[in-house]
Amino acid sequence: MLPSSPSPLTILVIDDQSASRVAVVAELDRAGHRALEADSAAWGLELFKRYRPDLVLLDVEMPAHDGYWTARQIRAAEPGGWTPIIFLSQRDQDQDVWRGIEAGGDDYLVKPVSPMILHAKLRAMQRLLGMRQRLVQLSDELRSANAQLHELSNADALTGLMNRRALDERLHQCIAQARRDGLPLTLVLCDVDYFKRYNDSLGHVEGDACLKRVAALLREACRRPSDCVGRYGGEEFALILPNTPRSGAMTYARALIRTMALAGIPHPDSDIAPHITVSGGITTCVADASTTAEGLLLRADDALYNAKAHGRNRFFSYEMQMDTLEQRQPASARPLDK
Ligand SMILES: Nc1nc2c(ncn2[C@@H]2O[C@H](COP(=O)(O)OP(=O)(O)OP(=O)(O)O)[C@@H](O)[C@H]2O)c(=O)[nH]1
């Protein structure tokens, strides 16, 4: 009797000659494997697709379709997969072996098959299968580790929002998309008011907790799937709002101011409100070839500076400032409603 294998395999035996098939199946049974039998290429292929065996023992000479054809069909039926195929044949010429390997086979046995050789080949294939499984598992682990790494390198450690690197990348993508679609794109830079005083009054740990809360509120404010928010640095956040015109941006800004007021995060040392407030700079463009991420950031920053200079707890639109200047109305930029 053959020595038993480390773990039993499901083996598909495809052979039109019942005597040799039965003999092989008997050997497999003796070694503790589970055998599936097919007496034709077509039926063998069907069983292969249905049961996905661990290994195939495949006769070369069969009527209708031969073993080479069957091997090619098996390979085509498992893209990216690999099931060992061992050819069984009475032919023992070098070119027969070569043809078998070329057709997608992994080994070649001459009939009548010696039980000991059969068992040794199965062991070798089993070892290869194990190594392949380990390789597949390792590459899966590597893929998920890479995905995790990518996520970590794009996330801000304190708030979990996108970090500046990821924001810059997203802004470039959004500009390209807006250019293709011919739709308006809005960028908002948002800064917590009197945050230094908040830290000075309550300490850095409370300051961190406050930034986390503000981040969560801003994240909630991103209702559309295409809207996104990230931490631009320190107590400054950036919101990218695709397909958002100037009027939409203003509505959005008012909602943000209301959100902060409703949240009512106490600020013990603010000149403008008993709670945390934010100021913001908005820029809206219909992107063309001259639109750049750097240009948008400069505009939003300019508007933010003016919002701060005009009292905080407000949002300024860069484009509205420009319109105001052009119309020779008061030189100062016009704030959006609180
Ligand atoms: N707790 C905490 N504080 C931070 C963090 N990043 C930046 N800060 C603080 O944020 C404060 C920002 O101060 P300023 O730039 O003077 O601005 P501000 O006090 O908010 O004043 P305005 O912006 O003019 O309203 C500084 O004291 C920074 O140390 C952080 O991750 N955690």
TrEMBL record:
Alphabetically ordered keywords of this record: Coiled coil, Nucleotidyltransferase, Phosphoprotein, Transferase
- Is Phosphoprotein one of the keywords UniProt gives this record? yes
Modified residues annotated as 4-aspartylphosphate in this record: 59
What EC number is given for this enzyme?
2.7.7.65
Q: Which CDD domains match?
A: GGDEF, REC_OmpR
Q: Which organism is it from?
A: Paucibacter sediminis
GO cellular component assignments: plasma membrane
Segments forming domain Response regulatory: 10-126
Show the coiled coil region(s): 128-155
Query: What's a BP term from Gene Ontology annotated to this protein?
Result: phosphorelay signal transduction system
Q: Does the keyword Coiled coil apply?
A: yes
Tell me the ranges covered by the GGDEF domain, including all copies.
183-320
Taxonomic lineage: Bacteria, Pseudomonadati, Pseudomonadota, Betaproteobacteria, Burkholderiales
UniProt enzyme class: transferase
Question: In Gene Ontology terms, what is one molecular function of this protein?
Answer: diguanylate cyclase activity
Q: Mind telling me which SUPFAM superfamilies this protein's record contains?
A: CheY-like, Nucleotide cyclase
Q: Which Pfam families match?
A: GGDEF (PF00990), Response_reg (PF00072)
Recorded hits in InterPro entries, A to Z, give: CheY-like_superfamily, Diguanylate_Cyclase, GGDEF_dom, Nucleotide_cyclase, Rev_trsase/Diguanyl_cyclase, Sig_transdc_resp-reg_receiver
* Top-level taxon of the source organism: Bacteria
> What reactions does this protein catalyze?
2 GTP = 3',3'-c-di-GMP + 2 diphosphate
* Protein name as it appears in the record: diguanylate cyclase
